[in-house]
TrEMBL record:
Keywords: Dioxygenase, Iron, Metal-binding, Oxidoreductase. InterPro entries: Phytyl_CoA_dOase-like. It comes from the Eukaryota. Its cofactor is Fe cation. This is Phytanoyl-CoA dioxygenase. GO terms for molecular function: metal ion binding; phytanoyl-CoA dioxygenase activity.
Length: 291
């Protein structure tokens, strides 16, 4: 039985003109509860003495290491920049110190896989014209109260590049996301200007191929959403989020999807898979896709 698209003409128009749109109540209360409880268990079982990998979008070239690279096919834990004191010890419980968990929750954990490979996710990508989509990475993002780090302006295609570009991001709010606790901000229509720069992995590590442009903060608009809402993000859309200086967290689950029919995964992307991911569906003649 084929996958049938479920997006409306208005939603598709918003995606093409603004570079994003919001689907309210995309995830049920039960979906959210299951994912949050599962993450609580994963954090409980995580031995934070085994690793102290810190994630920062301000200094990604220095924060990438083998733990980061290998996370493409594992469930790995990354701390907030401000989680540790000068003595090198956590300043709060580990549950309030993690920046994100990634990047293969959608493959390795049954709760997150159940949502990620659901028919409603597949139907969304069918509406967008994807022929053989794969989820290339997943992240559970915490945006911890008081220390939740800034995510600088960026485009998803910079990190997950295919020829031609096909990355689309799904950002699911697991808690209400507001200006106060660090919601997404985007420049509407910025995807029409194309890809600004790429994040490239070479023998010496990873680096951007050119400096970041300067952005006028007045061009950004906030995307405040209720828990359960899904933000669909074009791969070339300029978006960001600020530090969470409030007392309330802003949990979210994020997926990034690329098409693998008629396009090529760039070999100098940071993700170098040993095993090709299972596609969400196949709707046309399958073409070989080398990761």
């Amino acid at each position: 039985m084929g996958i049938v698209g479920n997006l409306s003409p208005d939603q598709l128009h918003s995606f093409n003109s603004q570079g994003y749109f919001v689907i309210e109540s995309f995830a049920s209360v039960e979906d959210i509860d299951a994912m949050r409880k599962r993450m609580d268990q994963l954090l409980h079982d995580f031995d934070c003495s085994a690793t102290a990998s810190i994630f920062s979008t301000k200094n990604q070239q220095q924060s990438t290491d083998n733990y980061f690279y290998e996370s493409a096919e594992k469930i790995s834990f990354f701390f907030e920049e401000k989680a540790f004191g000068n003595d090198g010890e956590l300043q709060q419980p580990k549950e309030l110190s993690i920046n994100k968990v990634g990047h293969a929750l959608h493959e390795l954990d049954p709760v997150f896989k159940g949502f990620s490979y659901s028919e409603k996710v597949s139907s969304l990508f069918s509406s967008l014209g994807y022929k053989r989509p794969i989820i290339i990475q997943s992240m559970y993002i915490f945006k911890q109260p008081g220390i939740g780090g800034e995510v600088v302006p960026h485009q998803d295609n910079s990190f997950l590049y295919t020829e031609p570009p096909t990355c689309t991001g799904l950002w699911l709010a697991l808690e209400d996301a507001t200006i106060t606790n660090g919601c997404l901000w985007a420049i509407p229509g910025s995807q029409k200007n194309g890809l600004v720069r790429r994040f490239i992995r070479g023998e010496g590590g990873v680096t951007f191929d050119r400096p970041s442009p300067e952005y006028d903060q007045k061009d950004f608009v906030p995307i405040e959403v209720k828990a359960g809402s899904l933000v669909v993000i074009h791969g070339d859309l300029i978006h960001q989020s600020f530090e969470n200086q409030s007392s309330k967290s802003r949990h979210a689950y994020s997926l990034h999807v690329v098409d693998t029919d008629g396009c090529k995964w760039a070999q100098d992307n940071w993700i170098r898979r040993k095993v090709e991911p299972e596609p969400l569906y196949v709707s046309s003649s399958e073409l070989k896709f080398d990761l």
